[in-house]
Amino acid sequence: MSKQEEILAKLKEAVVEYEEDDCAAAAQEALDEGIDPMVAVMEGLAAGMEEVGVLFDTNEYFVPEVLMCADALYKGLDILRPHIKLDIDAPKASVVIGSIQGDVHDIGKNLVKMMFDVAGWDVYDLGRDVPLEEFVKKQLDVKSDVLAMSAMMTTTMMGMKKVIAMVKEKNPDCLIMLGGAPVTRDVANLFGADGYAESAGNAVSEGIKMIGRLREFQKGDIK
Amino acid sequence: MSELTGKERVKKLFKREPLDVMPCFSGQGAVVVQAIEKMGTQFAKIHTDARLMAESAITSARLFNMDGVVIPYDMAVVAEAMGRGISLYEDTEGIIYPTVPNKWKTLDEIDIPKDYMTRGRLPMVDEAFKIIKEEAPDLAVGAWVLGPFTLAGQIMELDILLKGLKKHKEQIANFLDEVTTITIDMCKHYEDLGVDFINVREMGSGTDLLSPRMWKTLIGPNLTKVFDSITKVPSVNHICGSTDMIIEMMHGCGADALSVDQKNNIVETRKKLGNDVLLFGNFDPYNTLTQLENVKDVENVIKECIDNGIDSVWPGCDIWPDIKQENMEAYVKTVREYGKKPSPAVGRL
């Protein structure tokens, strides 16, 4: 095993085993050894999170473990991200994300946010219990590529329909993702959204699948 | 023989005595916009005024011939009484339930006031129960409380709580013990108010979030204490989300009935628990009552619940208040007609 492979394996393991300190140490080691930080993020941290997704899908890990894995991932990401070289000519993708008004839960939202952070997007996190007009205002302001909203409870998800209508009217190209326990693909279609994640659980699976796609993209496996 | 009143029907159901027909009621919020409109009020106002809360509950039940009512409508009542604040969204158009804006962020910050029972909206809720009992003596009166874990997630940040289950096991276990006494106090309080049943909703503890092992060690024992404490009225153990892996442990907690949502495989649950257990559920209220375009489809959803072995068809969660009138009517009508035959745990007169 090369030194690079060894460090990437450490990063991956630290995420899977939710060892925050180990993850930070491995991230620093990656920088010290001159490993491309983007490779460390995608082949170390993101690869670890993909494995977490498998453990979650097979009922080995549940949400508490996944949250701790995410904390470990961020410890590494915080160290690696400042060193990732940006292509100044390429426009950076951006997302506006938040939990809808009436919803004070943000676990699902934060897990999806992690996926965008890993991918290096500009993330505008509006937090939770966000009034509808704030989503619209921010999206129109920053003209984000994606607007991602979550509502954990049935009782709050009707608000998403209004936001989608307002954003799509002014900015039809914006992709809209919905997530949250009560949202189904039917509801997402009904509201005119472009994607969905069914629950905090599915947000994990969906988010991780998206990370997987990003990694394939990075390697040139998909165009 | 004259028809049973709603209250009589529900009481008999819990005793598993023969009934004329399957009861139609819920332990989850069942207030509907048709009632709110008839009263000329707004959704945001029915959470803070005893008369409006009581009247909206009674009117909702009367409009659709339901057998009972259940209040309060939101899950923020106890957290608010503990000083965590309340967001009522009074200036917002549409239906938004009250939420808790200021949850405790760490275990060290938690300071539960001794007199919380007399704070916030809790005295107003008591008054609403009194009005309902006086003005609708024929209806079953249900109260609901949050189970200890879900209540803990209302008063402190959920992600901190969830991670704490792994990282700070002992402290979280102690905190859950403390919250369990609050759930018990609330149950005893509602018992003393003379409600007809209590639904304990431990809705944040399904296996979408927690492992069965964690459920067994941290959720089940506390729920058992809660159900042991409810001695004067029947109790229901309700959990929404994925419950197939924990249904036997739920049963072991000692409630008089179990309630689950549409994610539960009722046929399998029946096989596991047998026919003596009262089982409520398990249709998706949002899809069934607000989305389905054809009342035949609503009928089929309700019939499937009954065919699978449900003793009382309950929505899996709060009814989204903006129901289609015809869908709600089809729900109740199908329960009454298709529910004439005995259910697994309850015979017919």
CATH topology of chain B: TIM Barrel
Please outline the major beta sheet of chain B: 7 strands, parallel
Shape of chain A: globular
Give the SSE string of chain A. HHHHEHEHEHEHEH
Helicity range of chain A: 55-70%
User: How far is the first residue's CA from the last residue's CA of chain A?
Assistant: 30 Å
Low-pLDDT ranges of chain B: none
**Runs of chain A with pLDDT <50, length 5+?**
none
Which architecture of the largest domain in chain A would the CATH scheme give at its second level? 3-Layer(aba) Sandwich
Coarse structural class of chain B: alpha/beta
> Could you tell me the number of beta strands of chain B?
7
The fraction of residues assigned to DSSP E strands of chain A is 5-15%
Strand order of the biggest β-sheet of chain A: 2-1-3-4-5
Give the SSE string of chain B.
HHHEHHEHHHEHEHEHEHHEH
Q: Please name the CATH architecture of chain B.
A: Alpha-Beta Barrel
Q: What share of residues are in beta strands of chain B?
A: 5-15%
Q: In the CATH scheme, what's the topology name of the largest domain in chain A?
A: Rossmann fold
Radius of gyration of chain A: 18 Å
Q: Number of helix segments of chain B?
A: 14
So how many helices of chain A? 9
Most extensive interface: pair and counts?
Answer: A-B, 33 and 34 residues
